[in-house]
Design a protein that fits this description.
about 400 residues, alpha+beta, 3 domains, 6 helices, elongated
Length: about 400
């Protein structure tokens, strides 16, 4: 086929340029219209190299039939593409269509070689991707730790009435605990339960019945107190009573206590189902079955008192004829001892108070408050409190 009107036979030497004739004008017009539309959504680029590469690949794969017409066609297409691209770049800005915020225009597929094999040439139209505004990554606000204040709360501990005794009773102590501010009765109650169920304090003979169990919440209602625990306890004895006395004292309410176990358990402690409500006894003899005969309220365990001044101690006792004996030890040696009388005798519970005659020098001490047996004078009950004078 002769594509050059100047020569007969269509034989054009390879070293002479190919002249694009008027017969290609319709092709040019159609390409211009198509490429004008395409150029509106592409990034301008030079495709001449890629088109010539594809043309040579097609010519090499045709065997004896060399399609000479591909070269002038490719050159025409490249020229029109370049002209259309220049027009698209230089046309007035008002005619530029908006680009969608997240759209992506894919490149048109490359023409296949005459053999039908897929072309490995680059895509004929570069891809233009417009991305929407990027929202900067935000760091989640860090929760500030709750503000706490040291608050004195009543705590009931489990321990023997005297060293080596099998009788276990409840001992009340006032302990300083961190409570979230503003402090609420429920917050104080949870703090008190946490201490009662935790590790025994230093210098005591108390024991824990709630290893691995934690208090989760306390709810004060008009007719009851609800305590939610992580689970129940396997310890027999006064484990449940310990929590009842502690939470009622912390709230200042003698309301029935109901328990809920987060793990779905049915028993608070052996013999104490979650279906029941619990309260501290009111009968004096029943009270003695649960609480120790001697409590010390002050000085506080491991507390500090003023050196150079006498020691004043206070507490509660239920002893024979209201007699309360005491002794102050320093380094295991008696520093001073005496006795006092409580406001009520057993089985009632009365308060007591006494002050040493000697001022305390700086150092470490242990206060013993105890009851001797009326029968043989042996030690019947005792509470020991270590403290420091500074």
């Amino acid at each position: 086929m002769n594509t050059d009107p100047r020569r007969a036979g269509g034989q054009t030497p390879d070293d002479e340029p190919v002249v694009i004739g008027a017969g290609l004008r319709p092709v040019e017009d159609r390409l211009r219209q198509s490429l004008d539309s395409e150029a509106r959504s592409i990034t301008p680029g030079d495709r001449l190299g890629a088109i010539l590469t594809e043309a040579h690949a097609a010519d090499a794969g045709s065997g004896s039939r060399r399609h000479r017409w591909l070269l002038p066609s490719a050159a025409a297409a490249a020229a029109v593409l370049l002209a259309g691209t220049v027009w698209a770049v230089n046309r007035p800005s008002g005619s530029t269509p908006p680009v969608a915020a997240t759209s992506s225009t894919s490149g048109t597929p490359s023409p296949s070689a005459s053999s039908g094999a897929p072309s490995t040439a680059p895509s004929s139209v570069p891809t233009q991707t417009a991305t929407g505004p990027t929202t900067p990554a935000t760091t989640p606000p860090t929760s500030a730790p709750p503000v706490t204040a040291a608050t004195s709360v009543p705590v009931y501990y489990l321990g023997p009435v005297r060293a080596g005794s099998a009788q276990v009773r409840l001992f009340r102590e006032f302990v300083s605990a961190p409570v979230a501010t503003p402090a609420t009765p429920e917050g104080k109650a949870v703090a008190a339960l946490r201490l009662a169920m935790g590790a025994p304090p230093k210098g005591s003979q108390y024991r824990s019945a709630w290893a691995g169990v934690t208090p989760q919440s306390v709810t004060l209602a008009a007719d009851s107190i609800r305590v939610r625990l992580s689970s129940g306890s396997d310890a027999a004895g006064l484990a449940t009573e310990q929590l009842v006395w502690t939470v009622q004292a912390a709230l200042g309410k003698s309301l029935p206590v109901r328990f809920e176990l987060a793990d779905g358990g049915a028993v608070v402690s052996p013999g104490h189902p979650v279906s029941a409500a619990y309260n501290r006894p009111t009968d004096q003899m029943a009270v003695l079955e649960q609480v120790a005969p001697v409590w010390v309220d002050a000085p506080a365990r491991n507390g500090v008192v003023k050196a150079g001044a006498p020691l004043t101690a206070t507490g509660v006792a239920s002893t024979f004829e209201a007699t309360v004996e005491w002794e102050v030890l320093r380094d295991g040696v008696s520093f001073e001892k005496g006795f006092t009388t409580a406001s009520a005798g057993a089985p009632a519970r009365g308060t007591y108070r006494f002050t040493t005659k000697k001022p305390l020098t700086a150092g470490s001490y242990v206060l013993r408050v105890f009851e001797s047996s009326a029968k043989d004078g042996s030690l019947a009950a005792e509470q020991r409190i270590p403290f420091t004078a500074r």
